[in-house]
Structures are given as structure tokens and as C-alpha cells.
Amino acid sequence: MSANLRPTGQQPTATYESAFLKACRREPVPHTPVWFMRQAGRSLPEYLKVREGIPMLDSCMMPELVAEITMQPVRRHHVDTAIYFSDIVVPLKAIGIDLDIKPGVGPVVEQPIRSRADLARLRDLTPEDVWYVTEAIGLLTAELGSTPLIGFAGAPFTLASYLVEGGPSKSHEHTKALMYGDPQLWADLLDRLAEITSAFLKVQIEAGASAVQLFDSWVGALAPADYRRSVMPASSKVFKAVEEYGVPRIHFGVGTGELLGLMGEAGADVVGVDWRVPLDEAARRVGPGKALQGNLDPAVLFSTPEAVETKAREVLDAAADLEGHVFNLGHGVPPTTDPDSLTRLVEYVHTQTAR
Predict the structure, then answer these.
(1) pLDDT tens, the chain, 355 aa long
(2) What are the residue ranges of helices labelled H in 78-181?
(3) Which phi and psi (to 5°) does residue 19 adopt?
(4) Which residues are catalytic?
(5) Residues 79, 38: contact at Cβ < 8 Å?
(6) Residue 276 to residues 1, 258, 279, 299: CA-CA distances in angstroms?
(7) Is residue 95 a contact partner of residue 65, using CB atoms and an 8 Å limit?
């Protein structure tokens, strides 16, 4: 049964009444729900211990390890939802793309995709390709009980940028050159990636994820007109593909202040906002009918506890009139963050917003 809708005659799922799913549905909540992007990861000593000596992509394919890492921040910080521990390039690796995640660099693709012939390397993703995802989510939902689990995937543009550049890029020269120079090849590439991404999200939802987030980490590099013409159709295809499941769909990118309205228009139920735009202004740009997620500047976590509370209060005040609000950072948890600062932040938001 869907985590978001309550079909006639069926009992709601264990997670249906959670603060997180209520906020995503823009319903009244007992408190503002909190979770953090990259909450499971390098900021936690227990994560570093269990990952010791295990390459990143290998760790994503070990169900018991994935379940343990996903649960760590739930146990420590008492966040309102878990997010599945993985990486956005996992589905690409699963279909045979030769890539690796190099420490200190990020995903590196051995042979970048830049021609029509290269498209043939992007075959369909099947559930059997990512059997470990189904197994890990089964372990997780059994342990999480009434706490929701967010599934996630990389958006077509961000996956394309890794594939075309061959790795992380600040200027996205090859990506934009392809997008502008061969619009049909670009459209076909993003459409293929939309199919792969949709299949990856469906596996997670069918295994038990209560919501999904589409990460378009690099899309802030585009102008609105380019986003609408060259990216939005593929992102919309992903959101449409999972609409039937009724789970909340979250859309997040970095540096996307000028794109917020379009990102909501693409089909998300919840729009993630980075720290550059106050939530009340973000709500104006996105328009009615959407919940918002965000948006404390992660750098604040390195300041004093008092400063963290002051800035968190500003976020809560800006969110006071929103239809629905999920508290999060404006980007991922930095690796050198003191875990205790996150635990205190969760408690502060819960206490301040208790109704």
C-alpha cells in the first residue's frame, strides 16, 4: 500500500501518520520533522568504523552494511526519517558502466559518454541488477517500524553531467557543449537516464520506501530557459513514472534559487531549498500546493550552539506560514561536522515546534 494515500477499506501503513509524511502531505504535524542529507556518513565515527577498508561502491552492495549505516543517524540523532544509504551512480554501475568513486574526487567514469554510439551502453535497469537494494530495504523497514525510509536517486541531468564529463566538474563544459551542440542526442541521453532512474526508484518504493528524493546536485549550473527546454522533460518523466505509488516525491538541487518554480513544476510534491533563498521567498517562487524542505546553511554547524539555534530559529520563522515544512540543511552534512551539533539541532527543532 502507498505510504502517501489511504485507499478506501485499507489500513494505513505504519509510517502513514509520521510527522515526516504528514508534512510532505501538507497536513498538521505534532512537530516539524527533521532529517539531514548525508546524515548517514563520514560525520559519524560509527560509520567510519564499519566502512573501514571497504570501498564506497562495494559498501553500497552489502545489504547488512547498508542497513546498519542507514540506521546509525536514526539511533544517534533521533531524526524523523531515515534515508537509504547509497550513491547516485549505483544504478549506472549496476548496468555495467565502468566507473569508480575515488576518495577525495568523487565518481570517475572510465569512458565518458559523448556520442550516439555511446548510448547503447546505457541498457535498461532490472530489479535483479540491484537485488541488494531490495534486500537492504527489507531489513530496514523491519527495524524502522513507524519511522519512514526515503529512497533516492540522481536526477537525469546530474547523472548525465558525470557521464559526459567523466567525473565531477565546476564548469560542465562538455555537458553544456553536448546540450547546446546536439540537442537531439542530449534529449535521448536524458530520456535513457530517466528510464534508468525511474526503474531504480520503483525498486526502492516496491521494497518499502515511504518517500523518494531526486537529487539534481549540479542543475544549478543552468539558466531557467535551458532547464525548461533541456532538463525538465526528463525529470518530469521520472516523477510521473512513480506517481502511481502515491509516495511523496522530493526534488532537490544546489544553487537552484532561480529554478525553484520550475523544479516544483517538474512534478515534485516537496521542493528542497538550499540556504541561499529564505523559505518564505522560496514558497513565493514555488507557488501553492507544494511542501518545502530545508534550509539551514551547513556551515553554521561549525559555529557555537547558540549560533546554530539562532540560525535554526530564522529558518523556522521563515517557514511559519508554509503549507508543509521538513527541516533540513541546505546541502549535505559536511564530513567534519561534530555529530553532537546535529543531535542538539534535532532536539531544538522538535522542542521549538511541538504543538
Answers:
(1) 344 444 333 446 899 999 999 999 999 999 999 999 999 999 999 999 999 999 999 999 999 999 999 999 999 999 999 999 999 999 999 999 999 998 888 899 999 999 999 999 999 999 999 999 999 999 999 999 999 999 999 999 999 999 999 999 999 999 999 999 999 999 999 999 999 999 999 999 999 999 999 999 999 999 999 999 999 999 999 999 999 999 999 999 999 999 999 999 999 999 999 999 999 999 999 999 999 999 999 999 999 999 999 999 999 999 999 999 999 999 999 999 999 999 999 999 999 999 9
(2) 90-94, 131-144, 156-165, 173-181
(3) -60, -40
(4) 38, 42, 51, 87, 162
(5) no
(6) 37, 11, 9, 12
(7) no
Give me 262's grid cell: 520550475
0.90 exceeded by the pTM?
yes
What's phi and psi for 109, nearest 5 deg?
A: -100, 125
Judge whether 279 and 273 are in contact, CB under 8 Å. Answer: yes
Residue 244: CB partners within 8 Å, gap ≥ 6? Answer: none
Where is 270: in which H helix or E strand?
A: strand 270-272
DSSP category for residue 146: T
CA distance 128 to 108: 24
Beta-strand relationship, 149-154 and 211-216: parallel
Q: Report the C-alpha gap between 176 and 197 in whole angstroms.
A: 21
**From CA 352, how far away is CA 355, in angstroms rounded?**
9
Interatomic CA distance for residues 155 and 249, integer angstroms:
12
d(CA 299, CA 84): 24
CB atoms within 10 A of CB 171: 9
Q: What cell does 146 get?
A: 513507524
